[in-house]
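Supplementary notes for students who missed Thursday's class. We covered one full example, reproduced here. Read the sequence, then the structure, then the short commentary at the end.
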Amino acid sequence: MVLVAALLPLAACATPPAYQPPQRSQAVRAVETPKRTDPAEPLSPAARELLKARMASHGRDMNDLVSAIMVLDYLRIEQRGDQIADDVALARPMSRDATELNSSLPEKFFVHQDKVKVEARALSDAARAHDPYRVAEQYGRLSEGCVRCHADYRPRS
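Structure (token representation):
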């Protein structure tokens, strides 16, 4: 009996770790600070003003999306994903004309925007398929796209 009591703590150490869903690693990547020591990339005051209302709208959509995902409200997930994809539509400038407001946004911004749009559509597709695991995976990818753009362009507080 004493021997069993002595060996019991050792057996507990040999217990394999609890199951970790595959989305966990994506969630960690989405919120980790990118390896960047320099300040946020510059945006003109006009570009920041252009993006301010749009980002507030995205924030509301993402908050509603989290609520819908937690209860697997597929219709709401699909609608919000499509809404985010449709709203992410700032056109690349046709010229370097200073009167074209979008010309104040760097190309890297449009690359981030394209990624968010693709991931939002994929999230809607997963919701249409009623696939909770794909929904979780795609939400992680969508969030990662948002956070990486913010890390590049939002000033650190």
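Commentary. Residues 44-153 form a domain with the Four Helix Bundle (Hemerythrin (Met), subunit A) fold (CATH 1.20.120.10). The radius of gyration is 21 Å. If anything here is unclear, bring it to office hours.
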